[in-house]
Structure formats: structure tokens, C-alpha cells
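Re: the 146-residue chain
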Amino acid sequence: MAATSKEINDEWLSRFAGTSLIYHIMEDVIRGKNREDRIRAVKSLGERGDPRAVSALISCCDDQDPEIRVHAIDALSRLRSGRSVPTLIEHLDNENELPEARQKAAMALASIHSNSAIECLMAHVNNENEDPALREYIAVLIGEKG
């Protein structure tokens, strides 16, 4: 019987003990060599909700591995930190970024709900040259968030 994602993540987290867990996870995110461990660490940082993780996750948004970037953007959406807004806007604005990363950046910006985040989202909705699917997705996000 295969282990679930949660069981694997829990086992991975159990390697670390004490109150400095967040720093161990951030170290794996930034300096980790194993791609799968880095992805688990990025996901864990988002799930833990610790604001100390924001800077490490912002760094991961510039990773060469597109999957690391997607997971970092997703983790930032869970933390809802205003410090991540410029990075999220950068990824939403980047037409060469993966569509999934752009959608997650839009979702994160909608959840943060700062003035600059909403302005960016509105600009994408009103941009006729933007991908129609992304425009519609953002419009729905804005409608849901009010």
C-alpha cells in the first residue's frame, strides 16, 4: 500500500525537532539539493503559516525549476503577506511564466487584497491582449473576494 502525500510530508517533517523547525525547513528550501525535498519544504512552509517563511518563499519564486516556482507562489497565497505583493505581481505580469504560476499569483494577490494587488488584477482583467482564460479567472477571483 502506497503512503499518502500527508504521511510522506509528516515523515519528512518529523526529521526536525524543537522550535527551530521553521529554520530547518527554510534551509532545505534554499540550499536543498534534492528537488522533491525542496518541493515538500516549500509546501510545508505554506501550510505552517509562519510569516518568517515569506522571504525564503519569495526567493524560491525566482528558482529555475518552474515547479518550485509554482509551489512557492501557492505557499505565498496561504501566508497572505503584503511583502510578497511585488513578487506576485511580477509573476502575474510575466507572460513567459507557466499559466499555472500566473493563476496562482492572481489567486494570491486576490487573497492579500491590498490596493496594489487589486490594481494589478484589474489591469489584467481590462487588458484585451491578456489570455482570455486568465482574464476570466481573475474576474471570478475579484468577484469572490468582493
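Residues 34 and 118 are 36 Å apart (CA to CA).
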